[in-house]
Amino acid sequence: MERISAPRGTQDILPPDSNLWTQLEETIRHNGERFVYGEIRTPIFEHSELFARGVGQDTDIVSKEMYTLIDRGGRSLTLRPEGTACVARAFLQQNLANLRGLPQKLFYIGPMFRYERPQAGRYRQHHQFGFEVFGDPQPEMDAEIIAIAISIFRALGIRQFEVDLNSIGCRECRPVFLAALKKELAPHLMELCTDCQRRYQQNPIRMLDCKKETCQQMLDQAPHPVDFLCLQCQTHFIRMQKCLSALGFSFRLSPRLVRGLDYYTRTVFEIVSPELGAQNALCGGGRYDDLIEILGGPPTPGVGFAGGMERAMLILQENQAPEPLRLDVYLVPLGEEAYSQAMLLAMRLREAGIRTELSYDRRGLSAQLKVANRKHARFALLLGEQELKEGSLLLRNMESGEQRTISKSEVLQSISSVLAV
After folding, report:
1. Distance between CA atoms of 238 and 139, rounded to whole angstroms?
2. What is the pLDDT averaged over residues 196-217?
3. d(C-alpha 37, C-alpha 107), whole Å
4. Which tops the pLDDT comparison, 113 or 320?
């Protein structure tokens, strides 16, 4: 019978790599606490309309990459391809602005789903973390969002990265830029790729994000959003840059940076690392002041970012070997009568915070000690017939081979003291 494999574009996360994943998640949560952001967990699937309206019907995510199904009630549901629209929906539905006041500061960690060609650090089921703020229009908040991302990467030991920064304007000044862009590219329309020809009609700003060399050459001569900013957007962009400089963060202006989602306004940024090769983005985000209105709510400014956890893991795995599961005590009962007492003892040790594994193997002592070595146990605790009679146990240091007898009544104190050394 043919074996069943995991679907293409998914992965099993196994020990000891799962330890690195735990470290990554703990670092994200720790920074959430430091910056006073609360964790939010949204459903893995949402109504498809949420992404069509929030992300944009003409984006690659919505038009090409979503996992969509029709449920038994005839409703169109989609496995979430990104997190911001989901958090915005929850912000509106749960009435967080009125219940808890503004600004609302939230972060999330979880799986996302996109149908795209699998490659290093890019899976069809992948994981993202994100930080979102609703209700604060100030450029200082944009700088704080970037500071959070930098703090997380620094805490993970990632040192090689750069911040790319741009402003794409607002609903007042962007139409002026789009008109100039279309006018410049109109004579060369048939020279653009088919995707850019479609974007020219439906979503012109997305042409700036095209990766095809022929399009890039023409777009290098095209106007840039930052050259058409209104006074308010100019002021916002300048103040945000001053904040980043005051924090000691270096950045580079990238006039063609637009990001791939329709809800962005004003600030857009990416943090990229040369350690990742061609797919070099660690995270990206920006301001989305129109998103809540698009989803049916009142005008509410927003800003945030999302990071790819698989991308961060590629660097972590390159820079540090994952630690094996740590085991303090490998408890070996010798003889059937010892098992019931050994199980009780193992529970006592675990409740005291001592990492304990109980062997159910009926093989001899030599084989059991080999298992303890393979599992990197610090100590083996032996309970045999003689120890049962005497109310004692034999404690063996697996590194030195030294053994000593300890009283069963003092086992917690004895093991705690040797583990503290």
Report:
1. 9
2. 85
3. 6
4. 113
In the chain, count H helices and then E strands: 16, 16
Strands 45-47 and 76-79: antiparallel
- Among residues of the chain, what percentage have pLDDT more than 70? 99
- Written as six digits, the tokens of 333 are 């009962």
In this structure, what token pair is assigned to residue 191?
């020279």
What pLDDT, on the 0 to 100 scale, is given for residue 414?
Answer: 87
Cα separation, 220 vs 206, in Å, equals 14
What superfamily would CATH give domain 17-173+229-319? Answer: Bira Bifunctional Protein; Domain 2 (3.30.930.10)
Give the number of other CB atoms < 10 A from CB of residue 126.
21
- In this structure, the strands spanning 302-308 and 281-287 are antiparallel
Average pLDDT over residues 61-89: 95
Which residues neighbour 103 within 8 Å (Cβ) at sequence distance 6 or greater?
Answer: 133, 134, 135, 136, 141
CB 240 within 8 A of CB 209: no
* pLDDT (average), residues 235-245: 98
Quote the pTM value: 0.90
Residue 378's Cβ-count burial label (10 Å; 0-12, 13-18, 19+) is: middle
Name all contacts of 63-72 with Cβ < 8 Å and 24+ positions apart.
Answer: 64/115, 64/116, 65/114, 65/115, 65/116, 66/113, 66/114, 66/115, 67/113, 67/114, 67/115
Mean pLDDT of 352-361: 93
H-assigned helices in 186-284: 194-202, 213-219, 231-246
Using an 8 Å Cβ cutoff, are 104 and 133 in contact? yes
268: its two tokens: 């857009």
**67-70 vs 76-79, strand pairing mode:** antiparallel
Pick the CATH number of 327-419 from 3.90.1200.10, 3.40.50.300, 3.40.50.800, 3.40.640.10: 3.40.50.800
Going by C-alpha positions, the residue among 141, 136, 131, 114 that lies closest to residue 260 is 114
Domain boundaries, the chain: 17-173+229-319, 327-419
Q: Are 27 and 313 in contact (CB under 8 A)?
A: no
Residue 355 confidence (pLDDT): 95
